[in-house]
Amino acid sequence: MALNITTSLALRALRSNAARAGARACRAPIRSPQRAFLSSFWSKTSTVNSARASAEQASAAAPQQEHLVHDATNAGQLDGKPARHVAVNIDGDPRVFDTVFLRDSCACPQCVDPDSRQKVFQTSDIPEDIEGSCRTVIDKQKGWMVEVVWKNDVPGYGPEHRTRHSIDWLRRALNTELELRGGVRHDERVLWNNEIITRDNKWVDYQDWMGEDEVLFHALSHLNTYGLLFLKNIPDSEESVVDIAGRIGTLKDTFYGRTWDVRSKPKAENIAYTPQFLGLHMDLLYTSNPPHLQLLHSLRARTPGGESFFSDSFYAAHQLHNSSAFHFRSLCTFPVTYHYHHPTHHYHYTRPTIELYPYPKYSEPTNLAIHRVNWSPPFQGPFEARIGGENQTTMRNYLAASHAFEKVLSAEENMYEYRLNEGECVIFDNRRVLHARRAFDATKGERWLKGAYVDDDVFFSKLRVLDEQFTGKWIADGVIRPAVK
Question: How do residues 244-265 score in pLDDT, each as one tens digit?
Fold first, then answer.
């Protein structure tokens, strides 16, 4: 709802005064935006700004005094009455916050355990009739802060409890909300074909990976950007893949084990354990949370053949969208069933080929918001939906779309081929990069890879920690956020 002319003029004057004073102030606890800045406005504005300037001068003149310097006039608290909303001047603009948000976000030692950093109350503990009144204080380290005094606080908290938020933190909270609501994602991923990945491919020495956090950070950033990374000079040990994965975090334990061997054997329970050709696919799509990373360490490479090759499914999905938005949409909507059905294990899951983030914007071809791709033909089960009927075209639409998608995926110019040598390891994003293997002659030597998985939560946790350490930022839900301090 637009403010009326009188309110608008009042706001403009208040912003001007606040800017001249050089402060960002809590304007008022309010009950509606229209009445936020009118109460006692003309009589108090000049007094507020004068007092704020005096407080700043006193703080500068006596830097060794108490850590917090309170604004003597309650920093623009215009009516002094508790309310369900509070208006704060941020960069010259009044921004309205619900007191529930301000209370729930309280990070004082009474509300957040200093050691575990976990909340000691629940959002559901906050009374629905909670109200707050605010003022600003000056923190010599954090600058201007909003201090809220509560009426009808969470049970168990006394009248002495205060909540303080820095203006900078409130600004970031607003920006994060706006970016999340806007649905435009920050995306550092580089889509690649053979030419691009050949040019940009990255190799990391094992000792540097194990011993240098900055090397690890750049390696994981590259892995997140391209979905493909190689390591070299790895010790000839079955435990090496555990050490490599352990630098990221906890390994994912599956029914294959914490680690597993890729080598040919008779009566194999998986086609990967044969010398046969293995087409482009992803692992464990028949589980509810397939692994994010797959690691394959080459322990023996003494047989002809067996080259690995990789394809960027995100690149292929973008290419498909450019050529046929209809095929792209078919892959986003048609349910494909995957299964692993053996005497001792029975896994079953249905998912579309292309999964999107919640905020796709199809009007922007460069922002398709692709989250994951699911493509694993060897482990497909029978379709279970939209399988018949004279007037149903979805099955045929999916068939046409899958033909088109596979053609792009397996095009020679879109695949990267490499034969892993002994002492080398490939790490790839199992929810993006498809992998395959050429047939080999198991009678002429040994081919042995040691494999492991790492989940998405583990990977992104490590990447965020390193991102904060080396860049002062981190990313979640497509939004860049400052380091947590």
Answer: 999 999 999 999 999 999 876 5
Does some domain include residue 129? Answer: yes
The whole domain housing 293 covers 194-482
Of 249, 262, 333, 257, the closest CA to residue 297 belongs to 262
Please indicate, yes or no, whether residues 251 and 394 belong to a single structural domain of this protein: yes
Roughly what angle, to the nearest 10 degrees, separates helices 313-323 and 325-333? 130
The structural domain count of the chain equals 2
- Same structural domain for residues 238 and 377? yes
Measured on CA atoms in the order 86, 108, 482, 364, is the torsion positive or negative?
negative
In this predicted model, what pLDDT tens digit does every residue of 127-177 receive, in sequence order? 999 999 988 899 888 888 999 999 999 999 999 999 999 999 999 999 999
CATH code, 50? 3.30.2020.30
* Same domain flag for 177 and 286: no
Q: What is the domain-level CATH number for residue 427?
A: 3.60.130.10
Rounded Cα distance between 377 and 386, Å, is 19
pTM over 0.85: no
Q: What is the largest CA-CA distance in the chain?
A: 94
pLDDT in the model for residue 67? 35
Q: Which of 102, 101, 100, 96 is nearest to 34 (CA)?
A: 96
- The answer to whether residues 304 and 204 belong to one domain is yes
